[in-house]
Design a protein that fits this description.
single chain, about 350 residues, alpha/beta, TIM Barrel, four-stranded parallel beta sheet, about 30% helix, about 25% strand, globular
Length: about 350
Amino acid sequence: MPYHGRADLAGYDDGKPEDTLALWNKNGQTTMRFWGTGWKGMGQAAALDFLDRGGAVVRRTGIFDGEGGNYALVETVKVNGKDVTRARKALFDNWANQLKAEVRGERNHPSIMIWSIENEITFINSRNWGLAQWVEPAIRDIAREIMAIDPTRPAMTDGGHAMMDQSMPVNGVHYGESDMRDYPDEAYTCDKLFHQPQTIWKYDVTKPGFLGESLFTSGNAPSFYAGLQGESAFLGRSESARGESLWVKMASEGYRWAGIAAFHFWMADSTGGIYNSWQPVAVLCRQWNWTFASGSRVTRTLKVFNDTRFADPIDVTWQLKMGAKIVAQGGKRSTWHRAWRSNSRSRWTCPA
């Protein structure tokens, strides 16, 4: 069964837990990241109990973080009189012991669907300092220990893909976006995501992709969005919101269309502009061009998504309006041979 995970940062830092769950259900958010030792004033056990009862789906992230782990990840020791470089044993042993204790203590919580064993140790610290050849085998070995303790769930890194040797069962990707000029097509084809020449990792398309952090919109200069909204983006952050929203909308619909297993946007869509695309039943349009010559023919490809467990037929209707006048319209019934299928697609061509 494919997993369709969608999340942003809405509701993480404010509001009561019950209100946050209601907000996520309204938005169509289907996963959350439980990171650290507590949430909403509750400790680990109480928070996971609450998420169990609320039906949340949790990516459980360990506490080994790139900002805390720093760059002292390896050491040089004498072995048979020779200097040998290896992952720093005391650091990794301590991490392994803590992580294994966490998994043993929390593995009976049904809300947890995956163990994210570290955050950006591989993505930043190890890669940037050229330490991957020593650090990644140590992380791989700990991941295998975790999956032996709990064989019901996979483990992933947050940022290190499936690692250089492709030993992880999930592509855990952070910030795999491409240049703005590649959108909207990049969101649907993921060509640059799947073939990132600037990284040390390959994206194994046979494994699910979990984009654990994606689209940090405020991390880009306002001018980054000029390609989508025009020169007004150069006026500053308050003026670039339209381009930011459009980029997030393209990525949100494109990643769902492309079958990315899960994505977590590192922003909150306060306008709600993406949330109609996140609903369990949604109809998305592949094309984004909104200007065309008179007399030309315009193709629109619609795809019906059904993330529910029900296989009832879905009736889809569409209209093309010029002002108040309906110039074209149509419809189709989508039937589902089994639940969880989400690839019903129709194409319509209308005169401009």
